[in-house]
Amino acid sequence: MSRHQQQAWFIVGVFVLSMSVFVALIPVIGFHVALGAFGLFGLAGLAPLMCRKRSSPDEADVDERDSAILVKATMIAGIAAFEVCVLACMVPWFIYMFRGEESISIHMLPFVVFISGITFWLIRAIVTLVLYGREASCGKE
Amino acid sequence: MAKNDVSNHIRRLRFDHEEMTQQELASRVGVTRQTIIAMEAGKYSPSLGLAFRIARAFGKGVEEVFFLEDES
Question: In chain A, which residues have their Cβ closer than 8 Å to the Cβ of B32?
Answer without folding.
Answer: 2, 59-63, 65-66
